[in-house]
Amino acid sequence: MDRPMVPQLASLAAILFTTLVFLVGNGLLGTLIPVRAHLEGFPTLAIGLIGSAYFVGFVAGCFSGPRWLARVGHVRTFSVCAGICAAATLAMSILVSETSWILMRALFGFAAANMYMTLESWLNDRVRNDTRGMVFSAYLGVNFAGLMIGQLLFATARPSTFVLFSLATMFYALCLIPVGLTDLKQPAPAAVPKLRPMKLFRISPVGVAGCIAVGLANNAVWTLAPVYAQSQGLTSGGVALFMVAFTLGGMLVQIPVGRLSDHIDRRWVIVGTCTLAAAAGALIGLFGSHDRTIMLVTIGLFGVFMLPLYALSMAHANDRMPREAFVESSATLLLINSIASVIGPTFAATVMDMYGTQALFFFTAAVHSAMLIFTLVRLKQKGSAPSHGAFAPLPPDSSAAPLELAPARGAVRPQAGR
After folding, report:
1. Fewer CB within a 10 Å sphere, N or C end of the chain?
2. Max Cα separation, the chain?
3. Which listed CATH number (1.20.1310.10, 1.20.20.10, 3.40.50.12780, 1.20.1250.20) goes with 7-182+191-404?
4. pLDDT digit string (tens) for 175-188?
5. Angle at Cα 19 formed by Cα 61 and Cα 258, nearest 5°?
6. SS3 of the chain
7. Integer distance in angstroms from the first to the last C-alpha of the chain?
């Protein structure tokens, strides 16, 4: 590592460590909630509604976040929202009912959107152009590492007790410490971007459709895959490894797939990933497996094919936008993705109730097949757009800020306000 990068990363250690701790809690809670709900006898539809409720809150947080940051600043916004996350998580261990959990997850999603926005905009404000790529890589690694550590912690206690909820609550409390003690200067208030989904659809139909597909399919899997794994007879440790394999597959492939998309029309890469994701989903749905090793390999490959679509869609949309509109387009795509994520888990849960837990993967195969067909139609209708810069891999859950942070190729991407 170059010497100038060491002090830069050290100066941002508080934000990166806070992100790690926060994501550990999210990784644990994301696996715990569907498994515990299934153990409590919640209908699959109710589990889907709990997953959808998170994104209802997330959408609301996308609108409130910039205004809160402008009014009270980053530290206060983050502290308030971390407190909300901790309280909502602890309440779920006390109020074990479908209605309570739906309300608590909506409240949690609202707070989480503000927390992501706080951390990512702060990180983007403090990064230097000469270390932008290193900082972005560190942030991406912290996101995936936090999720996987949290998923592994799921195996440390029985999901039928309050222990894991309390453990997740501890992480939401602990993530306050680095931010509360940092002497990093807080960013100045930034402008709130306009969100114009129809305008963006006219400019980049494939980018918008890709974000809708991700909201429908990916977030249905994040919500309901633990239920599927549990129904296949996996223990708590097996469910944890199942989710880690899915996450790890997506992490390992993002950069190679993205670099490929830098050299050819990104829509052909989208066609390829959607084809393979649809095939993998159909194969898992048709054959499944009670052998743990086979299950881990297949879900890992499913993550390889499925998880890069969000970043590919974002990159394709930004290829068609002027640089000064990147923040607006990224925020609009995030909103579109979040709205689709409200629908995805509930619709997938309905299908699972009707046809069994394996129907989750038939649902994702149908979504990816529709995206494949739509992209092929657009390839025939419209030529490729010039690429503005290198592909930027994205965390599984974030605000619009990582695309501002990501390094551009050939020119420095301006740090426009929100």
Report:
1. N
2. 58
3. 1.20.1250.20
4. 999 988 887 787 77
5. 85
6. CCCCHHHHHHHCHHHHHHHHHHHHHHHHHHHHHHHHHHHCCCCHHHHHHHHHHHHHHHHHHHHHHHHHHHHHCHHHHHHHHHHHHHHHHHHHHHCCCHHHHHHHHHHHHHHHHHHHHHHHHHHHHHCCHHHHHHHHHHHHHHHHHHHHHHHHHHHHCCCCCCHHHHHHHHHHHHCHHHHHHCCCCCCCCCCCCCCCHHHHHHHCHHHHHHHHHHHHHHHHHHHHHHHHHHHCCCCHHHHHHHHHHHHHHHHHHHHHHHHHHHHCCHHHHHHHHHHHHHHHHHHHHHHCCCCHHHHHHHHHHHHHHHCCHHHHHHHHHHHCCCHHHHHHHHHHHHHHHHHHHHHHHHHHHHHHHHHCCCHHHHHHHHHHHHHHHHHHHHHHHCCCCCCCCCCCCCCCCCCCCHHHHCCCCCCCCCCCCC
7. 31
- The token duo for 199 is 């305008």
If phi over 0 gives left and psi between -120 and 50 gives alpha, with beta otherwise, what is residue 283? alpha
What is the value of pTM for the model shown? 0.86
The Cα 385–Cα 378 span in angstroms is 12
d(CA 199, CA 388): 20
Rounded CA separation 390/393 (Å):
10
Measured CA to CA, the distance from residue 258 to residue 256 in angstroms comes to: 5
Q: What is the pLDDT of residues 212-260, one digit of tens each?
A: 999 999 999 999 999 999 999 899 999 999 999 999 998 888 778 877 8
For helices 205-231 and 266-287, what crossing angle results, to 10°? 20
Token couple for 48: 């889907």
| Beta carbons of 390 and 398 less than 8 angstroms apart | no
Q: What is the pLDDT of residues 331-361, one digit of tens each?
A: 788 889 899 999 999 999 999 999 999 999 9
Closest Cα partner for 26 from 254, 18, 343? 18
